[in-house]
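Known limitations

Structure tokens in this collection are predictions and should be treated as such. Users comparing against experimental data should check residue numbering before alignment. To illustrate the layout, the record for Response regulator is reproduced below. The input appears on top and the generated tokens appear beneath it.
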Amino acid sequence: MKKIDLACIIDDDPIFVFGAKKIMQFADFCNSFMVYHNGEEAINGLKSIILAKEKLPDIILLDLNMPIMDGWQFLDEFTQIPTEHEITIYIVTSSIDPEDINRAKSYNRVTNYLVKPISIEGLRKILEES
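Generated tokens:
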């Protein structure tokens, strides 16, 4: 399994973000990570990185239910931005709604749909898939 260089967490829940970062460190999942607290903050930050030709994340862990701009709105906007760097997107949410699961499948850039909480085993599976 290869290690991810840069992971991005887009989630408004500080407890989930804290836990996910700790689990990523414990699992030796990635070298570093960036965090955005809603989709709008993530779009603005990632657009700036793309324009500056700086290092983009290899993987995004995306929550669906967030204020200001939710995960679906983020996906709709982010998938329209051309990038040379392939970014793997995983939806990580508490939603077990079949409509959300099916909707996620309609996005080519979404690799998988994971239900919270995230685990070391879940992170290892992500590493195997990437």
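For this record: Helices lie at 14-26, 39-51, 71-78, 98-105, 120-129. The first strand starts at residue 4 and ends at 10. Please report discrepancies through the issue tracker.
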